[in-house]
Amino acid sequence: MRKEAICLKVPKTQGEKAIVLSNKLSILDKELEIQRNKDFIYIPLNRKPTEKEAESIKETLPKHEISVKNFTGKKKKKATLEEILEDTLPPHLLASLPKSMDIVGKIAIIEIPPELEKYKKNIGKAILEVNKNVQTVLAKASAVSGTYRLRKLTLIAGEPKTETLHKEYGCKYYVDLAKVYFSPRLSYEHSRVASQVEERETIIDMFTGVGPFAILIAKTRKNVKVYAIDINPHAIEFLERNVRLNRVENKVLPILGDAKKVVEEQLHSVAERVIMNLPEKALEYVGAACKALKPTGGIIHFYSFINAAQPIEKVKRNFIDEVARSNRKVEKILFSKLVRATAPYEGQVVLDAKIR
């Protein structure tokens, strides 16, 4: 939107002083964008200055001009969910509105508290209004469970779809949230692990999903080989599609199967680095990860859940003990951190461990 308005024109060297004065005199039009060029700044005014105000301007800004110019309107701040829903929800329920959501491509995934269940479609429509890039809103209808780590999702607004194209750190991933596991909250972890990989490494991604670890590594390194394993055939189908999409065919090698069996039969003693992003069961696969490492050792990125009964120190002890059962040794825990909260007093953690 463009609008013609009275303006105060001053040399750029006096711009800050002019803005402060206009604001002080309450004549600055805050709904229009201030304009600049090489030499001058143009400050939109909401009215013509009074004689007294004109005197004050002349005294402070001797090289000014009052003229008329076309200005661009400022973009209005997006309304919040609370603002959109304040006339729909009872006031006492506004505080229960979810404070966060996951956005995968053009799909938003949200958890609706029980007390807001009857308003979920209103909430879904409000999310579409606030997030212009979102086309579909899905509500979580179950916890993540099963061999393929899936959850039930219910459509509450927008297009009826579960497949989307997600972009992350310059990579693109086709994802179907009804068929494969994917968490945008692990975006930083994908980047952090990829940044540690050196040229000529061989990496095994034991639970690859649609490939966010494997593909980012391959995109950011010229000479690596990533064996990307998953037991979910849908995940491997999407991985193969994403490998082609990101043009890393010669670096990422998708393998369908259980990681233990694949390592035992195909990938014994080949890797310098193993990624174990299966927090529910990763401890059961530590032996396979140790077998996958070269005899000289390497790095394991181990993910697990913590809670009050199992703090991070206990996760470390269990991991170290499991490595020892494989006739290996944890030389050093290089890094440990809470990756994301999953519930009050619960979360997912990562251990980077040097193994010999």
State the gist of this model.
The protein has 356 residues and is an alpha/beta fold. It is built from ten helices and 17 strands. Helix 5 packs across helix 6.
Using brief descriptors, characterize the structure shown:
four-stranded antiparallel sheet, Alpha-Beta Plaits, Rossmann fold, seven-stranded mixed sheet, elongated, about 350 residues, about 30% strand, 3 domains, GMP Synthetase, Chain A, domain 3
Low-confidence residue ranges: none
CATH level-1 class of the largest domain: Alpha Beta
Which class do the helix and strand fractions yield?
A: alpha/beta
**Secondary-structure arrangement, i.e. CATH architecture of the largest domain:** 3-Layer(aba) Sandwich
Number of helical segments? 10
**Order of strands across the widest beta sheet?**
13-12-11-14-15-17-16
Could you name the CATH homologous superfamily of the largest domain?
Answer: Vaccinia Virus protein VP39
Portion of residues within helices: 25-40%
Task: Choose one word for the global shape.
Answer: elongated
Strand residue percentage? 25-35%
Number of E strands:
17
- Spell out the helices and strands N to C: EHEEHEHEEHEEEEHEHEHEHEHEHEE
